[in-house]
Amino acid sequence: MVRTLDGKRLKYIGKVQPQPGEQDPETGQILYPYLPSEKLVEAVNLAIALERPLLLKGEPGCGKTKLARAVAYELGLPYEAWYIKSTSRARDGLYTYDAVGRLRDAQLAASKIDEEAAVKAKNADAYVEWGPLGRAFRDEQPTVVLIDEIDKADIDFPNDLLLELDEQRFEVTEVKQNSLLKKIQAKATPIVFITSNDEKDLPDAFLRRCLFHYVKFPERQQLIEIVKTRFTVSPLELVDAIIDRFLELREEMRRDKGEAGKKVSTSELMDWVRILSHQDDEILSKLKTELLYPGVLLKSWDDYRRYGEQMRTQPEA
Amino acid sequence: MKIESPQEELPLLELFTQLREAGLPLGIDEYRLVLTALQEGFGTTDQKALAELCLTLWVKSQDEEHLFNYHFQQVMIAPHRVTNSVTKKEAVKSEDNSSPEPPNKTPATVPVSSELMEVQDEMQVAEAVQITTQINEEITVNRFTQTDEYFPVTRRQMKQSWRHLRRFVRQGSPIELDIEATIDQVVRQGVLLEPVMIPSRVNRTELLLLIDHKGSMVPFHALSQRLAETALRGGRLGKASIYYFHNCPTKYLYHDQTRQKAEPVTDFLAQLRPERSTVLIFSDGGAARGGFSLERLELSQKFLDQLKQRSRYIAWLNPMATERWFGTTAGEIARLVPMFEVSRQGFDSAIDVLRGRGINAQLR
Question: Nearest residue on chain A to B171, judged by CA atoms?
Fold first, then answer.
């Protein structure tokens, strides 16, 4: 059971939201409200209670990545994001060792250029740089860790993380045996969120240790809520019209391409609302006849031609 | 709710067992997880919450979700099936309030999940395989349950085997520190100016999977589908391409099963790169129907001769057991190219050949 320092059991309710314009104190990014479904909230609490990573899948743009930040915000916990690249290795998330820096310092010391370097080069501990999971393990408080798009990496990657996620410990191989940094054991169980875009199958052994939640695309009412909390200026009538038009387009794409194709997503809707809310008063009538700024929504030439053009050819039918 | 209570008292045991039998990879650990969660108070409000809980803990993909819903419906919602006290309470409670499922939704009307469809298809193959191999009691008994295990090679084993197919080269932008080269440079220059970086190792093996389709291969479609799928998604191959043909590649190979997108064999051969292309052919070579066809042999030989000029690594997988090749076209083709039956061992041997090993052992 993940508890905070004062022994309270952590529970996510999904209702505590940042104020408009509030920034992440560390990165300076603007924080937006996150409106999770009830099922998602339950899944998060389950992951916290059972101390298992929560694996999130769902179509791109449905809000998988943003959840971790929202949970960290509500629970007031530190937040670590680890964005996986195709070249990422499991160890990078724990720590990296600056062997080159140490070589350089040793060199500087040998050539008597920098006397201080000699002292530093002797100390193997000084060259350990912690990765997101490494920092989370060392923190006294439970940390919310996001491992974003795990399926981008090599297929060995998830399996390489098993021990670390399971037993919450690892060793720093480069430091001396008696170093305090040698054996790292998590002080508090981190709350781990893992997202996957389903580009590669994840190993069974890894799946077994995760809880799984499929993030569904928000319903109409939920979309309205999301837009309302994010954009305070838009009149309700306009929001309604935009979302109707948006859902119509989505449905049309679903019919044409089936469930698997790339459809317009919430993140694109946000961009679209931002653009449209700065338009003139005639926007409502324009929306009915044409797909305004299709480039914000449609990201392939095929889609652009198909849905962007089509609207213009059927005026007030 | 006590874990140490007798077996009949264990909650959700029937659902758990059914899901296991249906092929979900669930173990004691998963079951314990549900118990722990229930003790913590999760999923205890109503049946819907309970289903949600089990979904989160036991199901790892959308496909499995269909399977789960079907069995949950059968075990937990159909009232006469309810056996243990806890589930009874749950069922009664939800009936009192509002039943989450419409009452007319009996198991018979539940939409057939993709798994069940697959099972039907795979049953065909199972039967075909069964005929060719020895009669195995277990196969008949377990046909409806362990969906993966009666297959000669399971999905998981396929993925594991594909992973052996690798030939690493350093490629791409330099991101790894080359310690040896850096030290060499330090020795030569007397001072460390900058470290030497090298690209990381990537698998550059290109797999071209040529699949015989239709005709006598129909019973093996699910198997070939699985081969293609695991090669594309599960393996760590540099590149994998799937081609289809019928009986023997003659003028064209096809990118799709319906044979709409054709590619001339000459183009196909021209794109092969001798040092990295590996070709795996999946066909019964005429062994399924038996008999010998000189025409088929000659056509196959012609194609294989062309192929050998462009690629060093060629293997043939035959869905029919080795004993059945004798006296058929397949038996003769096996003299031209390393041919293996589809079994764990056969598949691994084929991969070995594609890696450039064990060719001589096979072709004597």
Answer: A87
Look at residue B301 and tell me whether its pLDDT is greater than 90. yes
Furthest-apart CA atoms within chain A: distance in Å: 84
Query: pTM for the whole thing?
Result: 0.68
Which residue among B29, B42, B179 sits closest to A49, beta carbon to beta carbon?
Answer: B42
Residue type, A4: T
> How many CB contacts within 8 angstroms connect chain A with chain B?
73
Q: Could you identify the residue written with the tokens 């990201």?
A: A299
Contact A130, A95 (CB under 8 A): yes
Q: Which of residues 97-156 of A touch B (CB under 8 A)?
A: 99-100, 103-104, 107, 111, 154-156
Contacts 24+ apart (CB under 8 A), A219-226: A220/A247, A222/A35, A222/A37, A223/A247, A223/A266, A223/A269, A225/A35, A226/A33, A226/A35, A226/A266
Question: What is the Cα–Cα distance from A131 to A80, expressed in whole angstroms?
Answer: 9
Q: By the 8 A CB rule, do B67 and B19 touch?
A: yes
Tokens representing A179 are: 């170093």
Q: How far is B52 from chain A (nearest CA, A)?
A: 7
Name chain B contacts of A214, Cβ cutoff 8 Å.
Answer: 62, 65
Cβ atoms B71, B113 nearer than 8 A:
no
Closest CA–CA distance from residue A21 to any residue of chain B (Å): 34
CA separation for the pair A17, A75 (Å, rounded): 11
Of B182, B191, B233, the CB nearest to A201: B233
CA distance B176 to chain A (A): 10
The answer to whether A62 contacts chain B (CB < 8 Å) is no
Nearest CA in chain A to B28: A208
pLDDT digit string, tens, across residues A141-190: 999 999 999 988 877 788 889 888 888 999 998 888 888 888 999 999 99
Q: Are B141 and B233 in contact (CB under 8 A)?
A: no
DSSP H/E element including B182: helix B179-189
**Contact between residue A38 and residue A216 where contact means Cβ atoms under 8 Å apart:** no
Provide the residue count of chain B.
Answer: 364
For residue B188, pLDDT beyond 70: yes
DSSP string, B304-317: HHHHHHH-SEEEEE
pLDDT digits (tens, 9 = 90+) for A67-110: 999 999 999 999 999 999 888 888 899 999 988 888 888 877 77
Contact B177/A99, CB-based, under 8 Å? yes
Question: What is the Cα–Cα distance from B148 to B136, expressed in whole angstroms?
Answer: 16
Contact B25 A204 (CB under 8 A): yes
